[in-house]
Design brief:
Elements lengths: L1 H24 L4 H25 L1
Helix pairs in contact: 1-2
């Protein structure tokens, strides 16, 4: 249970960091934007599976 919570926290903090980085750099490169969106979707599915696992 504690291990799940820690990994969930790690996933969320990494996602927040990625969002922060994308806002700070604010590149207009479409490829980079698609990469960021893909990574965020990957993290969201990870968070969702963790929440299902905890319940």
């Amino acid at each position: 249970m504690i291990k799940n919570a820690l990994s969930l926290l790690l996933l969320i903090s990494t996602g927040i960091y990625l969002i922060y980085q994308s806002i700070v750099t604010s590149n207009n490169n479409v490829l980079i934007n698609f990469l960021i969106i893909g990574i965020l979707l990957f993290y969201l599915t990870g968070v969702y599976s963790h929440i299902k696992e905890i319940k």
